[in-house]
Amino acid sequence: MAEIGILQQYKPFFTDSYRYNVVYGGRGKGATWSIARGLLVEACEKRHRILCTREFQNSINESVYHTLKEQIITLGLESNFEVQKNTIVSLTGSEFIFKGLRHNVDSIKSMEGITRVWVAEADKVPQDSWDKLIPTIRTDDSKFFIDFNTDTVDDPVYRMFVKQKREDTFVLFQTYKDNKFFPEVLLKDMEHDRKYNFDKYMWVWEGNPRSFSDSCVFAGKFEIDDFETIDNAEFMQGIDWGFAHDPTVMVRCYAHGGNLYIENEVGGVGVEIDALPGLFENIPDSYKWQSVADSARPELISYLKKRGYRITSSKKGKGSIVEGIDRLRNYDKIIIHPRCKNTIEEFKLYSYKTNTTTGDIMPIVEDANNHYIDALRYATETRGTYTAGR
Q1: Domain around 295
Q2: Half-sphere exposure (Cβ direction) of 162: Cα atoms closer than 13 Å
Q3: How far apart are CA 244 and CA 288, in angstroms?
Q4: Pair (62, 142) in one structural domain
Q5: pLDDT tens per residue across span 231-257
Q6: Separation between Cα atoms, residue 267 and residue 263, nearest integer Å
Q7: How far apart are CA 284 and CA 266, in angstroms?
């Protein structure tokens, strides 16, 4: 087998004997493909049972399965592996297993012979899942590969492996600046955030920890959960139009049992008018449900109406933002599906202004990190009504 390259800084993960190998920091750091390549090499060298896990995984598409599959092709290792529907096996008998922790942690506890564990998006793994997973992996010389983008210093993975110095742990802090193969498509996203949303840039790309504070508009009000959408859900949809550098977005949600469930999202920057239906069709049957859109672009509302969308203008005016925030906060809980990544980011960043002299929080919301939240405000102005066709 030809030599397979990974970023130099990740080599201790595979050459040293640390039980816990942790990489954290900002987006685009090259961790995913470096870990994938290292594990593929190990799978070719000897027999391993490799558990690839994360907190939320309802299907194989939400795992690192496709990353491993693509790396097998990129590296020309097709003759060394059999890529099956739900697993990957090597000629040495190594097996890659893909399971989410939220619904499978007890079944994982019964697994025997796991020698490698790759925990992706580890910032989303709660303490209870760690407490069940770690004692399960007890094979001699077994290892964990733990990968996450920095969220808060209070996340269990940050407290366990970054705050606490451990002799059995190798910790690596990385950002896009450490990745010489940083992709062009992410470079554009990074430069956009650095120019137009510096707080988000410092958190998402530079890997600075984010802290919840009293200034966070929805602090303590939302949670992330891979819920199953209820039967006969009455969807509400909101649309916020993009301008020069802002995304055009649609958010779908529904109310149930006192909670608001954010079920799906879609968005894009620089979307042309004739591409709007194609964008919104990424949310299944979006044209069948009532949407409330930002009233600032009546020509776009008219365009979508002519193409079969049920769409009305939002109510805007003095106090409408505060009214919309109050309406959202009146739900017992706002529960966001993990696939709604942009909505999650905004809920974490959406804040009240702080007086630069006194540090006091002012009753004025920052006009930033609010595109998906604005769409959500519009959506909840009214309840959606389902129709059978266009």
Answers
A1: 222-379
A2: 25
A3: 29
A4: yes
A5: 999 999 999 999 778 999 999 999 999
A6: 14
A7: 11
User: Which CATH number belongs to the domain containing residue 54 in this structure?
Assistant: 3.40.50.300
Distance CA 176, CA 190 (A): 9
For 122, counting Cβ atoms within 10 Å of its Cβ (0-12 exposed, 13-18 middle, 19+ buried), the class is buried
Residues 259 and 137 in one domain: no
Residue 272 CA from chain centroid, whole number: 26
Q: How far apart are CA 210 and CA 153, in angstroms?
A: 7
Structure tokens at 135: 């004692």
Q: What is the secondary structure of 244-265 as a DSSP string?
A: SSSEEEEEEEEEETTEEEEEEE
pLDDT digits (tens, 9 = 90+) for 48-89: 999 999 998 877 777 899 999 999 999 999 999 999 999 999
Q: Using the 8-state DSSP alphabet, how is residue 123 labeled?
A: G
Cα distance between residue 130 and residue 141, in whole Å: 19
The label of the residue with tokens 């309406």 reads 327
Number of structural domains (the chain) is 2
CA dihedral 303, 344, 147, 41 (to 10 degrees): -30
